[in-house]
Amino acid sequence: MITALSIKNYALIEKLTIDFSKGFSIITGETGAGKSIILGALGLVLGKRADLTSLKNKEEKCIIEAQFDISKYNLAAFFEANDLDYENETIIRREILPSGKSRAFINDSPVNLQELQDLGLFLIDIHSQQQTRELTDENVQFDIIDAIADNQGIITDYQMLLKNYKADKSKLNTLIKKQSESNKEQEYHTFLLNELLAAQLKSGEQEELETVFEQLNNVEIIKEAIDKSLAIANEEQFGVLSNLKEIKNSIQKIAPFSSEYQELLERITSLAIEFDDISDEMNRHSEKIIFDPELLEQTNQKLQLIYNLQKKHQVLTVDELLEIQTKLENEVVELGNIEEEIALLNNQIQEKGIQLDTLATTIHDNRIEAIPVLSEKMIAILATLGMPNVRFNIEVTQGESYFANGKDELQFLFSANKGTDFGLLKKVASGGEMSRIMLAVKAILAQYSKLPTLIFDEIDTGVSGEIAIKMGEIMKEMSQKMQIFAITHLPQIAAKGDEHFKVSKSIVDEDTQSELKLLTDEERVVEIAQMLSGTIVSDSALNHAKALLN
């Protein structure tokens, strides 16, 4: 429950600090006095977005701080999950800077707005006239039924499974589309792959083939050159080998006379040995050189095949062709993998569909059991609120589609009087009837909810007299289990509160300011009398106010 609220530099409030107690608190004040400002400040604490219009003085920052007693609401796990310090007396602070930026803190730890909003869901429910109108929304009606059916845990499991189910369906559609597109290209890719495989390409092969081709294509020139070289080398009288031998013999005679001559001898000897090896190597090449037109043709054909493939695939090397071959092989394998993935996904989707159906049936059955309970409680409460002949016709039917909260479709029909047909709430219920129905809903949900605080913002629209007294009594009864605030214009409801706060507006030094004040018993009598008779309070109004309070 909220135990204190501090507001500084917000809207018409310059500075305000107020303490709250548990039970039933009333807030009254003239239209425009600033009741909505209090709700706006609480909204900021609960994570609503802010802007510079919130600042009373644009040169100073706005600070709103609320203190909550959360000792009985099992919120330690939330604080641990969000890495926050848990305190039984938790303080939430919101600051809006003149620059327009805002900051939020929980127990002095900085948090983002989402964390503030998540915590706010456990702390306060602010009921507005807008929320009364939302009662006609099917999702809100489901929420009411599910609260009584205790479906929240099952629906959470269902929603997680549904998210995975939809993700699998999306992935399946993507794979099927990819498979369809791949099938169109598969035949062409398979042709290209087979063409490359048939070529039996090897890395470095092109260079080897080009060397062989050049040799075979120029065999006569090569043979002639080698044989001529051999003749020059081996001619008996003037051949290179013969001359080197003569030179060696000549230098050998003078080698003993000088180390320099000895070095010359060694070099000539080495040269003679090397040239002898060269001559032998030329002989071997000469013997191997054979004109082979068949091998030449085979080599030429393989080279032309490589050149054609390179041109087709717009590459320059065999290695690049091999990369393309590997890529095509992977694509063919991938297509086979897609078929396996599709089969696996279909099985997963089918299994998850069965699990979803099981959860949806449990949700449906729980709703069927909860509907009579809701109808009976609603009828009983509304009978005390001047609607003795009210009837509800609530039906849930299970369909085939998966919705966010199950597979049910809802008919929530209402009849206020005997002899009238059932109709949709938004079409047949008046404003006063809607206010009473919503109060009945809140009173019922209070029995199932662990929410600490509920604020009613003019839920009494369209009612008066004895009905207003009954509404006040119901809120008073609700306050035995949770902290209740009621912003009201009706003295009958105001008189039921444990505490009474008044919002007023005044002009101080030509500056309009709002303030919230806790009324004494005497001030409360006067306030309720004014609500009964207006600004001029008569004795009868005072007596009436005392009677209401007593």
TrEMBL record:
One GO-annotated biological process of the protein: DNA repair
Keyword ATP-binding belongs to the record: yes
Domain RecF/RecN/SMC N-terminal residues, every copy: 2-505
Function: May be involved in recombinational repair of damaged DNA.
Primary gene name: recN
Cross-referenced Pfam families: SMC_N
CDD domains tied to this protein: ABC_RecN
InterPro entries linked to this entry: DNA_recomb/repair_RecN, P-loop_NTPase, RecF/RecN/SMC_N
Entry GO terms, CC: bacterial nucleoid
Organism the protein comes from: Flavobacterium flevense
Chain coiled-coil ranges: 321-355
The name this protein goes by in its record: DNA repair protein RecN
